[in-house]
Write a structure and sequence with these properties.
The complex is a heterodimer of chains A (112) and B (120). The N and C termini of chain A lie far apart (28 Å). In chain A, strands 1, 3, 4, 7, 8 and 9 form a 6-stranded mixed β-sheet that branches. Chain A has a 3-stranded antiparallel β-sheet with strand order 2-6-5, with no helix packed on it. Helix content of chain A is 0%, strand content 44%. Chain A has 112 residues and is an all-beta fold. Chain A has strands at 9-12, 18-23, 36-40, 47-50, 64-69, 72-77, 86-94, 100-103, 107-111. In chain B, strand 7 (68-73) and strand 8 form a beta hairpin. In chain B, the strands form 2 sheets. In chain B, strands 2, 4, 5, 6, 9, 10 and 11 form a 7-stranded mixed β-sheet that branches. A 4-stranded antiparallel β-sheet of chain B has the order 1-3-8-7, with no helix packed on it. The relative contact order of chain B is 0.32. Classes of the chains: A mainly beta (112), B mainly beta (120).
């Protein structure tokens, strides 16, 4: 059971908008730790998608955006494309665990 | 090109030890914190351990505390994970990842990983 909770799966048609939630607690997201998002395509290593709650690394399309409020965070993907089909993970740190890193359980995005 | 290459994985019996290595290139290794992250087959990511740029602060996941030891040799641009008392549940794909800063923030570069299988 992951410290950060994500829905196991979401889906959407090409062109649509989907959101993926990441729910934490007062010892991680609610304690002021930033949330970061990673995209993992099948058979590849994770790739940084969003950092510091809502910042995109260079090269990541502006179709991807992040937000955080209190103990929850969200990743939004607009203009869904077939190539977005992947697993998405949120990540932060947890003060009650000695500052150890924590990941969400991951969300499989299916583009219909 | 910034690159991380893991090695040292393999098949090992429960209770035995294994040492993973990660060689970094393309960046100033001793300027950055480093992490080990693992992924069980078909499952999600699990953060295993992190070490700051100068080894001054080290953190472990509860699942490996007391059994795994992370270390680094900045002169050799290398990160290590000594895994002792291995359990079946340690079977996973292990990634080495670079932090964006000297301590722990987010991971901006990942290696391709190495497989560890713990089985009798």
């Amino acid at each position: 059971q992951s410290v950060l909770t994500q829905p196991p799966s979401v889906s959407g048609a090409p062109g649509q908008r989907v959101t993926i939630s990441c729910t934490g607690s007062t010892s991680n997201l609610g304690a002021g730790y930033d949330v970061h998002w990673y995209q993992q395509l099948p058979g590849t290593a994770p790739k940084l998608l969003i950092y510091g709650d809502n910042n995109r690394p260079s090269g990541v399309p502006d179709r991807f955006s992040g937000s955080k409020s209190g103990t929850s965070a969200s990743l939004a993907i607009t203009g869904l494309q077939a190539e977005d089909e992947a697993n998405y993970y949120c990540q932060s740190y947890d003060g009650s665990l000695g500052g150890s890193g924590v990941f969400g359980g991951g969300t499989k995005l299916t583009v219909l | 090109e910034v690159q991380l290459v893991e090695s040292g994985g393999g098949l090992v019996q429960p209770g035995r030890s294994l040492r993973l290595s990660c060689i970094a290139s393309g960046f100033t290794f001793d300027d950055y914190g480093m992490h080990w992250v693992r992924q069980t087959p078909g499952k999600g990511l699990e953060w295993v351990s992190g070490i700051t740029w100068n080894s001054g602060y080290i953190v472990y996941a509860d699942s490996v505390k007391g059994r795994f030891t992370i270390s680094r040799d900045n002169a050799k641009n290398s990160l290590y994970l000594q895994m002792n008392s291995l359990r079946v549940e340690d079977t996973a794909f292990y990634y080495c990842a670079k932090d964006i800063g000297r301590k722990f923030y987010y991971m901006d570069v990942w290696g391709k990983g190495t497989t560890v299988t713990v089985s009798s």
